[in-house]
Amino acid sequence: MLRPLIAIDLNSNVRSRSIARFVSRILRVFGIADVIFIMDDDSIVEFNNTHVFSISDPESVTSLTENLKKLSEKKDVLDLQSVITLKRELGRSLLIVVSDRKIKREHELIFKYNGKRVQKVV
User: Fold this and answer.
1) Cα torsion angle, 111, 114, 117, 119, sign
2) What letter would DSSP give residue 93?
């Protein structure tokens, strides 16, 4: 079973309503997904020694995103090196980044949801 990993950029301008609709569609298509929250200092938010959280419903994801947005300083380009490393450790093939900002090009298959549509990062 394909289990997507969704990385939410805490400094993006993607609205909570768009994130909720996107998460709802992902759950409808895949049935299951995990989420991580990324900050601009190339780190992943950690709670109780875990970085990856299973998604139960779109509302809990958007609520947590809104509460965590205050933690990170914003930079111009989003660096995903720690996210790529975690993706490899988890053995995931599908990474979707929720952000409206430019993503530093990586040699990985990455999709980006900008609040309106999903597109491949090139």
Assistant:
1) negative
2) S
Give tens-digit pLDDT for 36-57.
Answer: 999 877 789 888 888 999 998 9
Burial of residue 17 (CB within 10 Å: 0-12, 13-18, 19+) is: exposed
Q: Which tokens in the block code for residue 33?
A: 């997904």
Instruction: Tell me the pTM.
Output: 0.88
- With 0-12 / 13-18 / 19 or more C-beta atoms within 10 angstroms meaning exposed / middle / buried, residue 81 is exposed
CA separation for the pair 17, 19 (Å, rounded): 5
Is residue 8 packed enough to be buried (19+ CB in 10 Å), middle (13-18) or exposed (0-12)?
buried
Residue 67 one-letter amino acid: N
Max distance between CA atoms of the chain, in angstroms, equals: 36
Across the chain, mean pLDDT equals 88
